[in-house]
Amino acid sequence: MQRVCLVIGAGAGIGNHVGRRFARAGYHAVLCRRTDEEGLNRAVARIAEDGGAASGFLLNAVAAGAIEERIAAVEADIGPIEVAVYNLGAQIGDRALADTGHKVFELGWRLATFGLFRMAASVCPPMEERGRGTILVTSATAAVRGNRGQHSHAAAMAGRRMLCQTLNAEFGPKGVHVAHVIVDGMVDAPDTLGRMLGEDAFRRLREERGLEHDGLLLPAEIAETYFHLSQQHRSAWTFELDLRPFSDTPWWNR
Amino acid sequence: MQRVCLVIGAGAGIGNHVGRRFARAGYHAVLCRRTDEEGLNRAVARIAEDGGAASGFLLNAVAAGAIEERIAAVEADIGPIEVAVYNLGAQIGDRALADTGHKVFELGWRLATFGLFRMAASVCPPMEERGRGTILVTSATAAVRGNRGQHSHAAAMAGRRMLCQTLNAEFGPKGVHVAHVIVDGMVDAPDTLGRMLGEDAFRRLREERGLEHDGLLLPAEIAETYFHLSQQHRSAWTFELDLRPFSDTPWWNR
Amino acid sequence: MQRVCLVIGAGAGIGNHVGRRFARAGYHAVLCRRTDEEGLNRAVARIAEDGGAASGFLLNAVAAGAIEERIAAVEADIGPIEVAVYNLGAQIGDRALADTGHKVFELGWRLATFGLFRMAASVCPPMEERGRGTILVTSATAAVRGNRGQHSHAAAMAGRRMLCQTLNAEFGPKGVHVAHVIVDGMVDAPDTLGRMLGEDAFRRLREERGLEHDGLLLPAEIAETYFHLSQQHRSAWTFELDLRPFSDTPWWNR
Amino acid sequence: MQRVCLVIGAGAGIGNHVGRRFARAGYHAVLCRRTDEEGLNRAVARIAEDGGAASGFLLNAVAAGAIEERIAAVEADIGPIEVAVYNLGAQIGDRALADTGHKVFELGWRLATFGLFRMAASVCPPMEERGRGTILVTSATAAVRGNRGQHSHAAAMAGRRMLCQTLNAEFGPKGVHVAHVIVDGMVDAPDTLGRMLGEDAFRRLREERGLEHDGLLLPAEIAETYFHLSQQHRSAWTFELDLRPFSDTPWWNR
To answer: Which residues contact A183 (CB under 8 A, 6 or more apart)?
Structure first.
C-alpha cells in the first residue's frame, strides 16, 4: 500500500502539476476529473514515464455519492490518503444578477463549498484515526472579496474559505493540516483560463504576459508551494497563504 | 401606496424591532416569518397600536417561489419596497463534522445565502428602476471567522457576506444601498437565543448578563442602527459595520 | 458645566461639520486645529449663529504636552469631554520609497498613531471615572491596505487602527465607546483634498463628481454617522464601519 | 563575493535558525543582534562547523545610521544581499494604557516599523538594480488584531504589516519579493519567550507544551518556510502566510 495524494479537480493546470509533484516525491497520485478521459490518461502516463505512480478516475463531484465512493475505493485499493487536494473551480465569468440563474448559483455552491464538505467528511475520519493528513484547498480571490458580476463565484468561494477555517478548528488539533491557498491571479492553464478566454485570446495572453515574463501563475511552481505545505512540521503549520505573479497587482491594491 | 420596509425573518428579536422602528418613521412594515402566526399577528397589532402601519405574512423562505411571490405581491398591493431587511438566521449550534448531515448543511446555505440571493433578485430590479432602495442584511460573526463546530453556519454566512459585496458592487452605483451588519454577540431574543438555550437557561442568562447590565444585544437598539443606515445620504454610505455589547469581547480578541 | 465634544483636527471638512452636528445636539464643541486662526474663528462663530456653544483653539498636536494640556484645560474650564474626535490626517500623496524621508515617515506616525495614543491617555482616565465616553477616530483606506507610494500614510494609519482595537479592548468594558471610521473615498473638503489638489483641480473635481452627483463624501453627512455612533446604546456598539459615496468603488473591489 | 542572507534580529530563536538554514543552502549568513556577543559568536561558529559561511555583528537597530551602515558594509565587503530578514520583535507584555509610557510606545514603533522602513530603504535600491531579492519579515498576531494591553505592540506591528504591503506594491514588480510572516503562537526561543517568562516558567512550558507535543513553534521548522518563500518562482509568490503549532488555536478562533 502506497501513501496517496488524491487530487479532486485534476485538469491540465494546478491539479495535474500537483499530482506530478507529489508523485515525484513518492506518493501515488490519484487524479480525478469530470471529463476528458484522454487528457486524464495522458496525465497518468506522464507520471509513469517520470518513474512515478498514478491512477486516474473520471469523477463527477456533484453526483451523489461519487466523491465518497471514490475516496473509500482509494483507501481500500491503493493506500491511505495522506494528502487530499480539493482543486475544483467554480468561476463562470462575470454575470449580472439578472443573468445569474438559480441553477448556476446552486451549482457554484455544489462545486466550491459542498463538494469540499463532502470530501472532508470522507477523508477526515481516516486521517484522524491515523493522527495525520493534509487537506490542501485551492481557492481564489473571490473568497476574500466580491467583485461585480461574481455573485455565484464569490458566495461559493467565501463559503469554501470559511469551511476550511471550521475544518481546521476541528481537525488541526487531531493532526490534520488544512491549508487554504488563495490563488490571486491568472493561472497558465489551458483547461480553465484557456477555455474561458478561447484559444486565440489565451495564446495572445500567454505571449504578452506569460512565458518569459512570468506574468501568469505557472502551475508547476504553484505545485512547489502545495508540496511545501504538506511537508511543514506540525509545530509550524500554515493555514492560509496567497500566490500571485511578481508583476501582478495584489487584490487589495489598485 | 405607502413606502414599505420588508422584513424577511421577523421573529421576536431583531426583525420585529426593525419593523417597529421603520413603522414609527412612517414606513409600512411588512413582517414575514415562517411559523407562529399568533406571534406574527401580535407584532402587527403592536405596530398598529403605536399608530403605525404593518402587515404580516407567513413565509417559508426555502420554498420555491415563496420569496419572489411575496415581494411581487407587496410591490403590487402595498407599495414600493424602499427597505428590504434580510434577517434569517442559520445557527444550529456547534456540531462536529460527523454530526453535520448533508441536509442540514444544505439548509444552512438555502437560508443564509440562497435566500438572500433570491430576495435580491426580486427587489433589486424595482429598486434600480426607482434609482433608490436599501438592503439591510443581518449577519453573524461566523461570516468572518469559522469556529469549531460551525461548519454549516460559517460556510453559509461567509457566502452571505460575499454576496453582499457583489450585490453592492453591481447595485450601489445604481442607488441601491446594501449594508452587511455583523451582529457579534448574543441577542436578547426569545425566538432564537431563547429557543436554542431553553427557557430556564435563557432566563438566567438575561438576569446575569442582560437587563441592567446591557450584556446582551437589545434588538430595539440594534434597530436604531438599521434605521440610521437606511437614512444615510448616498454620499456617505456604510457597507459594513459590527455591533456588540460594550462588555463583550470582540470576535478578534481574547 | 456643559458636556463637551472635543475635535482634534477641526479643519473645514469632517472636523468642522462634526463639531457643528454635536453643537446642534447641545454639546459644547471644542474645535482644535493647528493653523488658520481666522478659519477657526469663523467655525466657532458659525456654531454660535446657529445657537450652539463652541470654543476654538490652535493646537499643534505633535508638540510635547499640547494635547494633554488642552484636554486638561477643557475638562477644568468648559466641561466633561463626553465625545473626543480624533480627526488628524497624515496623507502626503504618493511617494516612492526613495522620496520618503525619515522625517516625513516619523511625522506621519506622530500625527496618525502617537497623537491618538496621547489623546487617549488623556481622555480615557476621566471617561473611565465617569463610566462613559466616546472616542471617534477618523481613519482612511490606508489603515486596511497599503497602496503603492503610501509607505508613510499606510504604516501610520494601520497603527492607528490597531491602537483603536487595543483601546477598545481595555476601555470598552469600562463604558468608553471607541469607534474606528474608515473613510474610503475623497471628502469634499477644501482644507485637505482642496489643498492637495490645488484650487482649480479641486473645483473641477467638485463639478464633475461632487455636487449634484454625490460622488464626493459630504462632511456634513459623515457627521450624521459620527453622531449616530455617539448615541448608540451600550448594548449595541459599533467598533468599525466604512463610509464612501454610492458611486465609488470600495477599496476591496476593482 | 558570496550571495548573502542578512538577518536583523538574530537571537537564539527564529533569526539564528533562519541564518543556519540559508547557510546550509550556500548563502553567507550575516547575523546581527543588539547584545550578547558571546551568543552571536557561538551562532557564527556553529554555522562554520556545519560547513557554512557566516559573519556576526552587534547592531543597535534604533541607533541612527546603524542599519544603513551595516548594509552598505555587507554589500561592499561580503556580497550582494539576496535575502534580507527583518526579525526584530517589539513585544513588551500586556500593559494597561496608564502603564504604557511615551518612550516605550515610541520604541515599539522604532523597532517594529521604522527599523523595517530603514532596512528597506537600504536594501531595495541594490535589489532593484539587480532585478531580484527577497525581504522576509517576521510578524506577529498583533499585526492583525489588537488585544488588551497590546497598545504599543499592536500599533507597531500593524504599521509593519502595512509597510510590507506598500513595499510589495512598489518593489514586487521590480523583482523584489516581500513576504510578511504572521507567527501566531509561542516560539520555542530562549532569548525572547524564555526571557519574558523567566527560566523556570519557560522550562515548565517547554515540558508541558513543547518538545514531544510540538505545541510551541520550533524555530528550525519556521526557518524551512522562510527558505521556501525565498525559493518561490516569481510567477507564484506568497505575500503573506501564517504559522502556528497544530495544537494551537488560530487567532481568529475561540
So the answer is: A14, A138, A139, A140, A141, A217, A222, A242, A243, A244
